[in-house]
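Example 284.
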Amino acid sequence: MKVSDYPIGVFAGIDAGLGVKLEVVRELGIKTIQLHTPAKASRTAEQAEKFADKLKDYGIVITVVFLGFEGETYETIARTAETVGFVPKATRQARLQEAYAIADFAKLLGVSAIGSHIGFVPHNRHSADYKEVTETIRTLCDYLAKNDQALHLETGQEDVDSLLQFMDAVQRGNLFVNFDPANLILYGVGKPLDAVTKLGSRIKSVHCKDALATAGTPGVDWGREVPFGTGQVNAEEFLRTLFTVGYTGALTIEREIPEEPLRQKEEIGQSVKLIEELTRKILG
Ligand code: MG
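Predicted structure in complex with magnesium ion:
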C-alpha cells in the first residue's frame, strides 16, 4: 500500500449533532468526511442535491453517514446506555424507521456506508432483549442491502468479544465495524490494538481519536478524550496494526470539543500532520 491509499478524513456535521463544520474541513484542506446525520428538515431530495453540489465544489467526498437521533446524550456512561442507538426499547421502532429515511438520504448523496452507535448491547445473549436488538439490526441491514449500503457499527460500548458475538448473531454480510480506539479506553472495555487484530477485515472505517483512561471506576466513570497521538491509544502502533490487518479505508479524525471551535480546528490540523508523518514512516 502507498501512503496515498489512505485518505485523511474528519468527522463533520452541517446543522445537528456532533462533528466539525464544513467550512473548517475546507480550510484544513481535508478531502473526506464522515457526516453526522443532518437535521430532519434538511433531509430532502432538494437539500441533498444542493449539499452534493457544495461538496463537489469543495472537492470533499463523504465516506460514511452516521446515524444520530433526538434524545441521545453522551453526558455520562449511564445516560449513554439509557439514550443511545437501538437498545432503548421505547424509541427502537421509531428510530429504525428514521434510520431508513437517513439511509435513503445518504443514498441520494451517493454514500454506501451508514455508521451507528447502536448502544449498549445487552450482555445476556439468551435474553429476549438481546434477541430483539439482534433482530432490529438484522432488519436494518436488510433495508440497507436494498440500497447497496453497509452498516458500520461503532466500537467501544462493549468489549471486542461481545461485539464479535453480536455481529455473528446478526448474520448479515453487509455488517462491518467503524473502529474507534479511544472509545475502548473511554468506556474501559479493553485494549484497542488487540481489538484491531481480532476484528481484522471487519473494520471498514475508523476514527482517529485518543483518550486517557479514567482514574475512577472503569465502565462507570468516563475517561477523557484528548488529541490523537497524545493519549493511551499509541497512534503509531494503531496505524501500523490497521495496515497489518489490511485496512485501506479513510483515516477519519474525530475530535469532539464543539464548545472550543478554535482549539478543535487547531488540534485537527495537528492530527492531520501527525497522520501524514506516521503513514510515511510506516509505509515508507
Ligand atoms: Mg467515534
